Each structure stands twice: as structure tokens, then as C-alpha cells.
TrEMBL record:
Gene field: mraZ
Subunit structure: Forms oligomers.
Protein name, per record: Transcriptional regulator MraZ
Keywords: Cytoplasm, DNA-binding, Repeat, Transcription, Transcription regulation
GO molecular function list: DNA-binding transcription factor activity; transcription cis-regulatory region binding
């Protein structure tokens, strides 16, 4: 569904323009709406889901037993922080200020198409991720079978 890396500029009002290559797809699969929430695993990143995809994730996360602290933390970061944003007629969406501030996303950002969702990274956090390599000791069993 979504794939690719695009440098994005956030305007002074906190809006970003959806790349033209994705606009029709966002309109079709999301009725010009996306859900913005935090990436609970890495700093400096927001996740943007089409509503139908989001509902599946939300329901799965909410089924986790709330008696376990890490589950409540995941629910807080994903479900509690989730916000619907509309894409306007110019293909822009307004990112909530609280989300931008918490992740350090300012003027320059990077939008990554990650299949079922987008990831929006602060420029600095994205560069830090890209500059990291995967060491041999980090390769999982599942990765060994990949033909890259």
C-alpha cells in the first residue's frame, strides 16, 4: 500500500502536505482521513494509519490485559494519543501540536510509507536510525530466511 521515503516540510501552522503520489490512495482507503498516534518503540516518530487499518490495531491493543503495566503503557501511547486528522483540499493535514512537541518533529521531517501505515520521523531521529547498522548479533531467526 504505502512505500517510499519523502522529505517533508512542516509549515508554521503544523501542516504537512501528503505527497501527490499518495493523495489518491489516502482518499480512497481513508476517505481523506488518517489517524495520528505515537510510535511506542522509537523516539522521534509518529504513526499515521488509514481509519480501517487503525481500528484493527486499536482493537488488538485494547484487548491486552490492563493489569499489566507495559500493556497500559502501550494503550496510552497508541490508543490514548490517537487523533483523527483530515486531509484538506490542498492535500495537507494538521499535526496536533502535542504530538509534534513530544516527538521533536519541527520544520523538516521524513515521511516513510511502511505498507499499512506511514511513519513520520523528525529529521534528526530519522538520520540517527538510518546511520545505525544491524550487527550480526542482532539478526533474528526470522531475518535469517530473508533473501535480501
Amino acid at each position: 500500500m504505502f512505500q517510499g521515503e519523502t522529505a517533508i516540510t512542516i509549515d508554521d501552522k503544523g501542516r504537512l502536505a501528503i505527497p501527490t503520489a499518495y493523495r489518491d490512495l489516502v482518499a480512497r482507503v481513508g476517505a481523506n482521513r488518517l489517524v495520528v498516534t505515537y510510535n511506542p518503540y522509537e523516539l522521534g516518530c509518529l504513526w499515521l494509519y488509514p481509519p480501517a487499518e487503525w481500528e484493527t490495531v486499536r482493537d488488538e491493543v485494547n484487548k491486552l490485559p490492563k493489569a499489566i503495566k507495559v500493556h497500559r503503557n502501550l494503550q496510552l501511547k497508541l490508543v490514548g494519543a490517537a487523533t483523527f486528522v483530515d486531509v484538506d483540499g490542498s492535500g495537507r493535514l494538521l499535526l496536533p501540536g502535542s504530538h509534534r512537541n513530544a516527538t521533536g518533529i519541527e520544520k523538516k521531517a521524513v515521511l516513510l510509507g511502511m505498507g499499512s501505515k506511514f511513519e513520520l520521523w523528525s529529521e534528526q531521529a530519522h538520520l540517527a536510525q538510518i546511520r545505525q547498522t544491524i550487527g550480526e548479533d542482532e539478526i533474528s531467526e526470522a531475518m535469517l530466511g530473508l533473501t535480501l
